[in-house]
Design a protein that fits this description.
6-stranded mixed beta sheet; alpha+beta; OB fold (Dihydrolipoamide Acetyltransferase, E2P); D-amino Acid Aminotransferase, Chain A, domain 1; 830 residues
């Protein structure tokens, strides 16, 4: 079909005297471009367009693209668009076809997967690869069979293929809220246009209401400039070898990757890759550094492991050696597991689990070769068995509540499936076998008085690695032995200067302290010979809380038969997943010493009766004096509070190290009696979309009571007066535009039949219930984070109780909740 005919329907639907959309004319082809436009028309959707046949083939994806391979998004085929539409961003006038705001949300190029063709589209099945700024990797478009009454409408499904770019369903549309061309939000694009609808959207009426609600706003404090330099190297934390997997919920467990420990220092396109000893190996890992530099990350210091994947898809040290020597074609991958600093802020003092939450939010979907290292809380034995069965090295177990320390500690433990250690090569013996030049190598490790002989290894060599190793050994040749070796072991040995470090797998050390059944894996160029000592597996530490819980059998929730001991056990179990939100934050406690049905009271100060695990921070009061407020920094602190009769933990919107600058906004949706929970959920979704329109990412949390909290993470820049003023004006503007649904005042008379948007949580000294906290209500409900997709299926705010602890732990580690509550964003400037 001629190009003009392909655009006939597009031109027929539009009055170009009214709309600024480009007319359907032949344009200059780019060959294989694609774009996605966020389109706020009658219904918010995303227009997905692929260049083909000289036009943009187009689909309206009703809920936007999803990174979850299990999530099939409806994509309704629309008319072909001209290539010039790839530059359109603006507002289509009300009353025109597609009237509403259009944002250029993503762009790039596309290609069919190898073995497929663009012609497959006509067959109703297109398997393709996207190289966009936001949409990457393999995708699939499938046409559905038409149903009766659909006429010419074509319904397709857009689905992500499970690859390195797959992730949570909401990672894309929930977090990417600005134009890839102009950096503007939807509201900024529509700033000079009339609103299409006020329900759940920001428009002129909403802007006017925000301005009307504004009182005497204090001058906005200037935002401090962020560090734009890649951070300096820091000594990494090292793990202690132990003989068994630690048990209990204090520990999180990760795969032990078989590669090179590396610290990634990044700031935008500037990237440095350091070894564990501080060597700058950026040139050796140039492809990986270049890929990370293209992600536009802020200033950050990321800890991880660089690996190469073997033929079985698992990390393989020998393959890594070949790639680094240019002898292998495999790609290098970085598995990131810690975040030491971000935007110039030191994060080492935060609990391990909190640093990982920030890392997950920072990396998002990562890239083809940069991955977030997942973990599980508790159940380390299960992961260990799975790794050993897969032939992997083992696992790393880390104290969830521990800060980062640049040394070897027992807060990080390693448990190995097979014994592997580093050894110094001190000599080699020639081989008399045909085609083999080297029979074995002699090993040593550093002891208290110098090098100590550790045996011979004669397997693991092949033509490729032995030839290169032999060249290096001959260059280090010396006449005499550099250590004491048994006479029978020193025959025909060619001695070398002890410079090379070898990675050796072996069965055990014999009674003579030499390796048994050893195998050469490769050289460790990132480690110095002087640092190689014998690793001896220590006894796995057992963490017994030194906080004793008395009266464990006392009933705290009579109707649910939950005792004080069970409440303490719950908080110990969820402590790891709760710490990112409660640790280092001033807290108020709801104490009910005799149980929830008896007298309960708030407490925010303490004279020391809670014990050493509950900390104090001095905070200035209105009268100019100071008071000591409570905070905790580990799981024992939570248990100490429970011992003192605490049921609920409520936190400030700021942390103790930066108490005047909030790191979150909370909109607590409190429905009047008689309102259905569906009304609350709809209100939460509408507020989410309104926040999106002004460029703010938000998250949902079931309060465990009647309502939903809409949580807006903030980079702590603005101070309390600005944050309070914004929350006030935002809430009053919503109430003004939809007075039948919302009220922003506490008056019970004005709340009748409405939802109270409680913005008062966002002022200095106010608190809000924290994630995973048990509420002092019937049946011990829990405040629980949920994804926006999950919220659709929840039927009450108290959907989870203390009895659901196993489910809560499993959910916390799920893909859907990865990075929940974390986003780098500041308040829009109104």
């Amino acid at each position: 079909m001629a190009q003009a005919d392909l655009l006939k329907e597009y031109n027929r639907k539009r009055d170009f005297a009214r709309t600024k959309e480009p007319a359907g004319k032949r344009g200059r082809t780019r060959g294989n471009s694609f774009i996605v436009q966020k389109h706020d028309a009658t219904r918010l959707h995303y227009d997905f367009r692929l260049e083909l046949d000289g036009v943009l083939k187009s689909w309206a994806v009703t809920r936007g693209p999803s990174l979850d391979p299990a999530d099939k998004r409806l994509a309704v085929r629309t008319e072909d668009h001209p290539l010039s539409y790839a530059n359109f961003e603006g507002t289509i006038p009300k009353g025109e076809y597609g009237g509403g705001t259009v944002m250029l949300w993503d762009e790039g190029r596309w290609e069919p997967v190898p073995g497929k063709s663009a012609e497959d589209l006509a067959k109703g099945h297109l398997h393709f690869i996207l190289h966009g700024e936001r949409m990457k990797g393999e995708w699939l478009l499938i046409r559905l069979k038409p149903r009766a009454g659909e006429g010419k409408r074509e319904n397709w499904l857009l689905r992500k293929i499970d690859d390195a770019y797959a992730g949570p369903a909401e990672d894309l549309v929930g977090r990417e809220l600005t134009s890839i061309r102009s950096g503007r939000t939807m509201s900024e694009i529509a700033a000079n246009a009339s609103a299409i609808s006020l329900k759940g959207k920001r428009g002129k009426t909403f802007d006017d209401a925000m301005a009307k609600a504004q009182k005497a706003t204090p001058a906005r404090a200037p935002i401090k400039g962020r560090s734009g330099k890649p951070p300096a190297f820091q000594s990494p934390q090292l793990a202690t070898l132990v003989d068994a997997v630690p048990t209990g919920s204090h520990w999180l467990h990760e795969i032990k990757y078989d590669g090179y420990r590396s610290l990634l220092s990044v700031a935008g396109s500037r990237v440095k890759v350091f070894t564990r000893t501080g060597l700058d190996w950026t040139d050796r890992f140039a492809s990986l550094a270049q890929e990370v530099g293209s992600l536009g990350l802020p200033s950050a210091l990321i800890d991880g492991e660089i690996v190469a994947l073997g033929a079985d898809g698992n990390p393989d040290f020998s393959t890594l050696q070949q790639v680094l020597k240019g002898e292998g074609k495999g790609a290098l991958h970085l598995f990131a597991f810690d975040l030491l600093s971000l935007d110039g802020e030191d994060l080492a003092w935060l609990p391990n689990i909190a640093r990982k939450e920030k890392l997950a939010a920072l990396l998002g979907q990562g890239s083809a070769h940069l991955h977030f290292s997942d973990h599980i809380v508790g159940a380390g034995e299960k992961l260990f068995r799975a790794m050993c069965e897969a032939g992997q090295e083992g696992i790393i177990s880390k104290r969830a509540d521990a800060p980062y320390r640049g040394a070897r500690t027992r807060n990080w433990l390693k448990v190995k499936c097979t014994r592997r250690q580093e050894f110094v090569i001190v000599g080699w013996t020639p081989s008399s076998a045909s085609g083999r030049s080297m029979r074995n190598i002699l090993l040593a490790q550093n002891g208290d008085e110098g090098l100590v002989y550790a045996g011979k290894v004669g397997t693991g060599f092949n033509a490729r690695n032995s030839e290169a190793l032999l060249r290096q050994l001959k260059a280090l040749s010396r006449k005499s032995a550099p250590l004491t070796v048994p006479r029978t072991e020193g025959r025909n040995v060619q001695w070398v200067r002890p410079r090379l470090v070898a990675e050796i797998a072996f069965a055990e050390f014999t009674g003579e302290n030499v390796v048994r059944h050893g195998s050469f894996l490769g050289l460790r160029e990132d480690k110095q010979a002087r640092d190689v000592t014998r690793e001896r597996a220590m006894t796995t530490p057992e963490i017994d809380s030194d906080v004793q819980v008395s009266s464990r059998d006392r009933l705290i929730f009579p109707e649910a038969k939950v005792t004080k001991g069970q409440l303490a056990d719950y908080y110990e179990a969820v402590g790891a997943i709760m710490l990112p939100w409660v640790a280092h934050r001033p807290i108020s406690l709801v104490r009910c010493p005799q149980g929830r049905a008896k007298k309960c009271f708030f407490q925010k100060h303490d004279s020391g009766s809670f014990g050493d695990h509950v900390k104090h921070v001095a905070i200035r009061e209105k009268d100019g004096g100071e008071q000591d407020y409570l905070y905790v920094d580990d799981i024992d602190g939570l248990i100490a509070c429970v011992q003192m009769g605490t049921i609920e933990f409520h936190g400030w919107g700021s942390r103790v190290d930066n108490v005047e600058k909030p790191d979150r906004l909370i909109f607590d949706l409190d429905p009047d009696e008689g309102l259905d929970f569906e009304d609350v959920k709809k209100a939460a979704r509408d507020i989410r979309h309104t926040l999106e329109d002004i460029g703010l990412v938000s998250f949902a949390m079931l309060s465990g009571g009647k309502g939903v909290h809409v949580v807006v993470p903030l980079t702590p820049d603005a101070e309390w007066p600005q944050v309070k003023d914004f929350a006030d004006r935002f809430s009053r503007a919503l109430a003004s535009t939809e007075p039948d649904r919302f009220t922003a005042t506490m008056s019970k008379a004005k709340r009748k039949g409405r939802i109270f948007i409680d913005w008062l949580r966002n002022q200095r000294g106010a608190t809000a219930v924290l994630p995973y906290v048990v509420r002092a209500r019937e049946n011990a409900p829990v405040a629980a984070p949920v994804s926006w997709a999950e919220l659709n299926d929840v039927d009450r705010a108290a959907a989870f109780t203390i009895a659901d602890v196993a489910q809560l732990l499993e959910r916390a580690g799920s893909l859907e909740l990865r990075g929940w509550g974390e986003a780098r964003q500041t308040l829009p400037d109104f």
